[in-house]
Amino acid sequence: MTEPESADPIHIARRILVVEDEPALREAYAEALALRGYAVRTAANGEDALAEMESRTVDLVLSDLKMPRMGGEEMLCEMTLRGLKPAVVFLTGYGTIESAVNCLKLGASDYLLKPFDMLQLFKKLGQVLASGSQSHSREAQMREIESFSARLRGQKDSNEIFKALLAQVKRTLAPDNMALFSCAEGEGAPTPLFLWGDGFRQCPSTRCWLLEKAALAMERRGAMVLGPQVGKRAEDLREGVRLGSGAVVPIVGMRGVHGVLVLGRAPGSPPYGREDLRLLNVYAGHAAPFVESLRSRQRFRGISAEVVTSYAQAVEAKDIYTRGHSERVGGYAALLGRVLGVQGRDLDLLRTAGILHDIGKIGIPDGILNKPSSLTSEEYEVMKRHPVVGRDILSRVSSLQDVVPLVYHHHEWFNGQGYPAGCRGTDIPFMARILSVVDGFEALTSVRSYHEPMGVPQVKQVLLEGAGRQWDPAVVNAWVGQLADDSLPDIREFKDSPASLR
Ligand SMILES: [Fe+2]
């Protein structure tokens, strides 16, 4: 393709879809319009054209009337039904002029009688685009921005916001290449998060160039159009991909720059201009507060989780006999949970609950916690408060709400004689029943203030005797099945912190 002719103001709305079943004609129109400076897509019939219009923004449809599968008239009716509003200009011969007139009644903008020369075509398109399409285009942009904002509101993760932004930009600004850099904490160095298009993806030297531009936009905190120097500069790179034009926009929030978006168009595609930059700024400006708020929330969750982990460590420091107990209960719980079909986020929660299950012991006096002999009934009543204290601590941490019932119920008995709620059987949360079994197993196989560790065969016996009374028999059987060789289960694979505590 050759370079476009000089930019024409009416090309603000410049995305044209050529719909023509005859390949030679289709290519001829597309080539001529591209040379004129329009961004051109093509379709071979009405059906393909509708799919194209639904996947990306089109300002004007230049369409034949008679085509296989779906003709122009039917396409126009479908466009109305689906709320697709590009201007439509039909190409028609004398044989179909009645249809063309009918299409005007149905909402087409104009028609052009065959045969025509390209100058007539350009003039007609210019007239249609100039007469009202600008306001139509603004209206369409407003609707796009509104629906983009609505999509952002539904996202729960900053990366999802970035993905929505990329999808929106890809659809409305028709880049050939796109890169998104993420800046941690609103000020970190830009790191590539997403690269799209062969030009940006396949060439290391182009990626260096992109990074340079991203850093520059970050420093300036402003959007830039990369003009003709883009092509020259990229050509200078030994392996660089030649770009016709580019645009760079930082995603700036109240606390800094959260990312940078870089777009590139191939030589021959219309260059990015001020209007494109305005739209890019609008989209990035809409995305920025969402990214910022989700990142703050994630950071807050991380801080909360760190505080909770410190509490858990404090319990172990306080209770000299339970060093490592919480970690081991977490590992055993994850192992048994997986055997019983617990997966994904639930498995992570189960392991976290295992690590935090005795956090309430922070509120139990040391004299009771480390007493080398049996507890009196009064002391036991105090000790029994730890699941309640644990619930009270954890319920203040928003990210750990799902862990709270597991910690609260980890001393319930299957026959209803446990504490604190005294619930029984399947009224006890399933994952709390798992915790109860591995907590008992870990306590019996470890040194305690009141007993020496028992061997695995003896502990298996204790668990089987307590099945149906203290523990869920199905859970006990599954755990005993894991202890076939009478050694302590290997939980090294669970040495890293669970995701909910990171
Ligand atoms: Fe406990």
Computed Rg: 33 Å
Category by helix and strand content:
alpha/beta
Q: Give the count of helical stretches.
A: 19
Distance between the termini: 52 Å
Bound ions, cofactors and other small molecules, one mention each: fe (ii) ion
Largest sheet: 5 strands, parallel
Q: Main attributes?
A:
five-stranded antiparallel beta sheet; 19 helices; 502 residues; alpha/beta; binds fe (ii) ion; 10 strands; single chain
Concise overview:
The chain is of the alpha/beta class. It has 19 helices and ten strands. It has a five-stranded parallel sheet, with helices on both faces. Strands 7-6-10-9-8 form a five-stranded antiparallel sheet, with helices on both faces.
Write the layout of secondary structure elements.
Elements: E1 15-19, H1 23-36, E2 39-43, H2 46-55, E3 60-64, H3 72-82, E4 87-92, H4 97-106, E5 110-113, H5 118-153, H6 158-173, E6 177-182, E7 191-196, H7 198-201, H8 204-220, E8 224-226, H9 229-236, E9 245-253, E10 256-265, H10 274-318, H11 325-339, H12 344-356, H13 366-369, H14 377-383, H15 386-394, H16 404-408, H17 430-445, H18 456-466, H19 473-481
Helix pairs in contact: 2-3, 3-4, 5-10, 6-10, 11-12, 11-17, 17-18, 18-19
Bound molecules: fe (ii) ion.
Fe (ii) ion (FE2) binds at residues 357-358, 386, 410-411.
How would you sum up this structure, described in words?
By secondary structure, the chain is an alpha/beta fold. It has helices spanning 23-36, 46-55, 72-82, 97-106, 118-153, 158-173, 198-201, 204-220, 229-236, 274-318, 325-339, 344-356, 366-369, 377-383, 386-394, 404-408, 430-445, 456-466, 473-481, and strands at residues 15-19, 39-43, 60-64, 87-92, 110-113, 177-182, 191-196, 224-226, 245-253, 256-265. The strands form two sheets. It has a five-stranded parallel β-sheet with strand order 2-1-3-4-5, with helices on both faces. The protein has a five-stranded antiparallel β-sheet with strand order 7-6-10-9-8, sandwiched between helices. The longest helix has 45 residues, at 274-318. It is elongated and about 105 Å long. 40% of the residues are buried. The structure holds fe (ii) ion.
